[in-house]
Structure prediction request, 96 residues.
Amino acid sequence: MKMSFDVEMTPEEMRKLLGLPDVEAFQRQLMDDIRERMVAGTEGYDPIKLFQPYVTGTMASWDMFQKMLTNATSMSSGAAGSGSDSSDTESKTRRK
Prediction:
């Protein structure tokens, strides 16, 4: 049996239903502050520093992924290489 429900509600109603805090005023204040710094060109505004926490986390994830692939590749090529060496040794032993 398959059942589905369609519920129409605003984001505000959904936040209240789930018990989440209303952070709209905080977000508005933060965005206004960023806009003021951008327009004024003040010393405190640096777009790179604004996005640095996101980029740093992303780059660390990519580094870990790259290391994982490198390890997996070296392990598989090492296993293939050692397997061929052992079969060559066996065939040489049989010939003698």
